[in-house]
Design a protein that fits this description.
Elements: E1 4-6, E2 9-11, H1 23-26, H2 36-46, E3 64-67, E4 78-81, E5 99-101
Antiparallel strand pairs: 1-2, 3-4, 4-5
Length: 103
Amino acid sequence: YVREEVSGVTQTPLESPKKAPSKAAMNCGKNTLPSKQNQSGLWKSLLPGPAHPPRCMAHKEPCVLRTVKKQGPNCGRRFFVCARPQGKPSDPRARCDYFLWAS
């Protein structure tokens, strides 16, 4: 390891003496960060996400979340209704009258 001084500037040769690699350098090629799958699991444990929707009484199926669009005191308020399409009340495949305000 030789230093040369030329016109007031100290220069160090490109090769430096060999040292034992540090632990950080030894782990350089290895994946030390959690995998995306592990990160996803960590986030899911911290942020459970939205609650499961209620099930309608008639069909026992998950309801859909809707928002009131009509102007008035409930505008913007959210609610759950049966997920089936509208139809005649006598049609068992049609939407039941289940309704629940979301909290």
